[in-house]
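FW: tagging you since you asked about this chain on Friday. Here's the raw sequence from the shared folder, copied in full. Didn't touch anything.
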Amino acid sequence: MNDSWEKVMFFGRNRAEKSQDLGKGKIISFLNQKGGVGKTTMCFNTAHALAQKGHKVLVIDMDPQANMSYLFGHEESRDSISIFNLLLNSVKELKHMHTSTIFEKVVFKTDVGVDLLPSAQELSGFELCVAGISSPRQMILKKYVEQAGIRKRYDYILIDCPPTLGLLVVNSICVSDGVIVPFRPDDFSMKGLEHFYGMLSDIEDMEIVKLPGIITHIPNLMDTRRKQEESDLDEIKELIRKVTGDDRFIAPFFNKAQIVKSQAAKKSIYAYNSKEYRPLHEQFNKIANLIDSWNDSTL
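HL: got it, structure written out here
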């Protein structure tokens, strides 16, 4: 085990931040540097599971690919405004790039208790736009969330992160209270998780924020026909037990046609009441309950 992994044993035990009246809403990032693990689908349906429990939920799409925005039915146009504009507006040194827009003009509202701050292709240029500023580039999203009072507007704010370990992900981690890590049980995911925890260790060394807690890992898109996945999952679990010191896993999600069907229709699984969807309802309800329990434990 390398030093970066050993440092993760102390996550959640670093210095406490000064309490501020920023609101009680909790921010949770869904992330994995490896693409194709079902991260966006997990975030989307978890948001709706929380809304089913009566919570007011915001989803922030921090991925320039804008797949989450697509699931919400948000159509990007040439003059679209997005989270990119709001982030730049929060940086005084980028005044020449500011636009006359505010949260209320950007947020995409739904009638099911889940709202969206959409992404756009311009977000891929975020790192280049902020390269020359003197204020902490890692804290831009955190600063915007505080300025806009987003924690006061929502019970939960879920962030769909891009499949990278770049500045967008670092910003998401620095604003988050907790993280959820979907992964596929294979060798590539094991390597990706190692890099992810190494990055968390680097952020901890900066001592600029309190690191988010690991809420859970979600084995996803498992294929019962592939026996190797069971042994890969056991190996990943054992490795993360050594790093985090406990079992932060939930039951695996299998590669089911119902998820694909609902995603193709741009709907959550809760839009379907047939019996073949009930097992998925139960699984996502468990994630929502786990989040609520974690939230209660942090109060």
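FW: The two ends are 33 Å apart (CA to CA).
HL: agreed, and Strands lie at 26-30, 57-61, 114-117, 156-160, 178-183, 213-219.
FW: great, closing this out.
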